[in-house]
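User: Let's play a game. I give you a shape written as tokens, and you guess the letters that built it. Ready? Here's round one.
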């Protein structure tokens, strides 16, 4: 897929949570095609200590409005600087990068999409894609508290949503792998994005139930083209760059102990 370096205009800036900013970007011409699960590399301006671009998952692509959404967690200086952007500002992106989630395997297949923390971001676009192409997505989302759950109305507009929170303030109390849905339902395959311990736990469940599973890794990807070697991951085929070979991997290709 062709890669682009483009200045997109900030069309809207929203703050769904104290720790997150949602940037809605647009262009004067139709946005390039991208696949659910791919990411962008963002250039951070006016941040003296931020030398490298920041990798951000594509949260959603609205073709009717010609918008590309980035859901960004404010962690360091670079992401805090991105949260200062205003409507009308320009943001330079390299995109679309990496390999996305699997395409629909068969009509009517039931796909469980598991997201935790900012890892919920790419699941929204993927769920929309699955639904539009004849699959049956189901979301299972985890957070620490009810206040930490993001984009719930949007997820519910796409497919059924099940929730766990660590304090029990929304949905079932506990972690995603403890949700009763996993005992009550059988899925054709599972896709996961979030903190590594969560993904390992879901992969363990998938192995125990013989369910195909893919995970989207969040290794630091400084260049996005396999040049800097910051994001190397050990696989059964040797060390690979997550930015070019991933970020989505079949869990069987990883060396995780599940």
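Assistant: Ready! My guess for every position:
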């Amino acid at each position: 897929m062709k890669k682009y370096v483009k200045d997109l205009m900030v069309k809207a800036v929203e703050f769904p949570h104290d720790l997150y900013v949602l940037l809605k970007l647009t262009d004067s011409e139709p946005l390039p095609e991208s696949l659910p699960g791919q990411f962008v590399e963002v250039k951070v301006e006016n941040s003296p200590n931020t030398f490298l671009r920041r990798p951000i998952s594509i949260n959603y692509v609205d073709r009717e409005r010609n918008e590309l959404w980035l859901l960004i967690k404010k962690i360091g200086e670079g992401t805090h600087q991105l949260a200062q952007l205003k409507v009308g500002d320009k943001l330079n992106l390299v995109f679309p990068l990496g390999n996305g989630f699997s395409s629909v395997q068969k009509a009517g297949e039931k796909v469980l999409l598991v997201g935790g923390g900012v890892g919920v971001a790419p699941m929204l676009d993927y769920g929309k894609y699955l639904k539009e192409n004849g699959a049956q997505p189901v979301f299972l989302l985890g957070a620490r508290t009810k206040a930490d759950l993001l984009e719930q109305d949007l997820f519910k507009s796409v497919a059924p949503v099940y929730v766990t929170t660590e304090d029990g303030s929304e949905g079932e109390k506990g972690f995603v792998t403890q949700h009763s849905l996993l005992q009550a339902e059988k899925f054709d395959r599972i896709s996961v994005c979030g903190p590594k311990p969560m993904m390992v736990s879901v992969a363990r469940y998938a192995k125990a139930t013989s369910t195909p599973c893919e995970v989207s890794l969040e290794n630091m990807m400084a260049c996005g083209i396999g040049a800097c070697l910051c994001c190397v991951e050990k696989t059964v085929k040797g060390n690979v760059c997550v930015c070019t070979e991933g970020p989505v991997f079949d869990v069987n290709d990883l060396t995780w102990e599940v």
